[in-house]
Amino acid sequence: MLLTRILSAVVLAPLVLLPIWFGGWWFIILMVATAGLMGWEWARMVNGGQLGWPGVLLIAVLVLATAGFALLEVRTIALPSFLVTGALLSAIAAVIRFKRRQAYPFVFFGTLYIGGACLAFLWLRTVPEEGRNLVFWLLAVVWATDIGAYFAGRGIGGPKLAPRISPNKTWAGLIGGALSAGLVGVLAAGFLGRDATLLVVGGMILAVVAQAGDLLESWCKRRFSVKDSSHLIPGHGGILDRVDGLLAVLPVAFLYFWAVKDTI
Question: Are the C-beta atoms of residues 88 and 115 closer than 8 Å to each other?
Answer without folding.
Answer: no
